[in-house]
Amino acid sequence: MTHPYHPQHPLIFSVQDRQTGIIHDSDIHSYDVSSIIPEDSSILGNCNWCGNDLRSFDFFYRCSICNFSLDSSCSQSFPLPTISNPKSHHHSLIFLPRPLLFPCDACGLVEQWRPSYACFQCNYVVHKDCIDLPRVIKITRHPHRLFYTPFLSPSTSSLCRLCYETVDINYGQYTCNHDDCSFVVHSKCATHKNVWDGRELEWEPEEFDETEDVAPFKKVGDDLIKYFCHDHHLKLEKYDRVRDMDKQCQACVLHVDSRHFYNCFQCDYVLHEVCANLPRKLDHGLHNHPLFLDPVPLNAWDSSNCSVCERVTVGFVYKCSKKRCTRIYQQKRFQVDVRCILVPDCFTHKSHEHPLFLPIHNYDTRLCNGCNHTGSTSSYYLQCTLCKVFLCYECATIPDKLHNKYDAVPFSLCYGEVSDQTYWCEVCEGILDPREWFYTCSKPYITIHRSCVFGWSAYMMPGYTLLFGNLSIKVICNSSNTRLMCHNCDNRCSSTVYLKLSNGIAICSYQCLRDFNSKLDRSPRARYNVELVNWYLAALAD
């Protein structure tokens, strides 16, 4: 075939035998086949356009005259020879039949595998993908609209606010036109699918939702508010060094310890002051669409995970406003719990000396510096651009201090240490690895696994009824002198709460609940029939 990447000679369809290394050149139209036995396996080389190793492809196209080759992916690209009236330039653009080995004027990147066009009159070269870059966009990581700019003045800030790397002012980027705002981002960063929602706003008016009621509460008196999802008035209680560890915030589910909070005197509804001021609608860097606050009602919760940290919570969550959002987490709607939503794009954590940033790419093979886990299903991390250190959101949102109603001295989070001594967990009495994060208390000196003191139960609240598949589970406060035995693992329920099934069976943790539910799924027809599930549970209880 004749290809625009190599117009001077025809390209022949070639197939490589993986076992013998023989290359079979064939004319598809005449079905003539010729074979080449390469003396050296490196005769295949790489694709002359993108640089990929041809040995990883079963077939490719090659020129027998000048040994020019294209892999199967590049051979399917047929760019137009000329683009008239391009969006990004005032002259027609001509296709370059050679890989572009110097920066694109629109994005500043050297990506030779991308087809490129040029205007020789203006000495302007641009990737095909960059020709139609939008002129005006809005991203969730900045409150103002961004405008495409072909270059910047030398006095302008040249640090990209998304990847935090230098922006070359000689090439295209997006900037904010508001006074006293120096927000600048790379064009590729601004239009990344995780950052931009794909809407171009060049001819659309600015949206001012002044009439939209998104305030979380209304003031009805001195330190008295009417919260949008609660029937009673809430009063602000100032922290007076007296902690009520039996109260939990309805939004973040954490205990009321050393912060001001709003309290309802007619019921046990409590909100931290910070949580009560969370807006009902916001833009956040974790998602490319606006998010709306969803206060999960009591006794009407379906088991769900935060899309960012994967924790199960009964607190408030922010959900994507788009019903058909393309960024789906485990086939469910994108949602973020309150703890993760409070983490800013630029974050300072005590475990690391440099600021951590929210990258625009999702990583699924990065090792978290806190838990040493990798390959999570959420793939959301905070990153240090200097050290390439990664921190998952579950570790980033763990409190550095935990208060206990029986001890005056709080537990402090230790970020690992080097020691030859043997550490023991005060709760589970198991060995504790000092190189991992753990909680410690100086008076008396004790060490505790972080999962034992701040595990799955930290985001559970007694009184909730959970719907997990066909199972109806109640969250019960584990305050009795006798700890029940878990029906799944045969260990005692040691957390502050445990899960109780409709027939009285006790489950110690959410992980055991999953294991127990998987056993039900393997039983005949119980997966689809609620009556059979109840019968099966009754049989287990007997």
From TrEMBL:
What name does UniProt use for this protein?
Uncharacterized protein At2g17590
Q: Where is the DC1 domain?
A: 41-74, 87-131, 141-190, 228-276, 410-453
For this UniProt record, give its keywords in alphabetical order, as a comma-separated list: Repeat
Keyword Repeat in the entry? The reply is yes
- Going by the entry's taxonomy, the superkingdom of the source organism is recorded as Eukaryota
Q: Give the DC1-like C-terminal domain ranges.
A: 473-513
Concerning InterPro entries, the annotation shows: C1-like_sf, DC1, DC1-like_CT, Vacuole_Formation_Reg
